[in-house]
Amino acid sequence: MSAHIEATALRALLTQMGGDREMQRRFVHDFVHLWRSRSQRLATALSFPDAEEAHVVLLSIRSSSTMVGAVTVEATAAMMHDALRDGDLAGSARHIDRLNEVGEQACHDLATMFALQR
Question: Name one GO biological process term (predicted).
Fold first, then answer.
């Protein structure tokens, strides 16, 4: 696989989709193509600040990252989410650059694996 994508999670996603590889591919496609808008929504929510919106976006990032096996994305988003739940918006925001970095790397790896156009 890659340093950013866990093969077991991708196999589980395929199983959850009844073995339909095209549906799995579409889910991965959506993850890759929604990444920038999700990360921009999060950055806006953290700078505005809008803790509720940041919470919603982080949940979305975490759940979809888990499903596609983007382990470093999920771990970074979890750390940000923990800070947010503790009321530390600034602490959460400090990790946005790292989240964007691992998110872009995961998207690149997934796009390569699934032959997606970015």
Answer: phosphorelay signal transduction system
Distance CA 112, CA 110 (A): 5
Domains of the chain: 7-113 (1.20.120)
Residues 6+ apart with CB under 8 A from 31: 64, 65, 67, 68, 70, 107, 110
Q: How far is CA 48 from CA 40, 43, 111, in A?
A: 12, 8, 31
Q: Is the pTM of this model over 0.90?
A: yes
Token pair belonging to 101 = 């970095």
Model confidence at 6, in pLDDT bands (50, 70, 90)? very high
Neighbours of 73 (CB within 10 A): 30
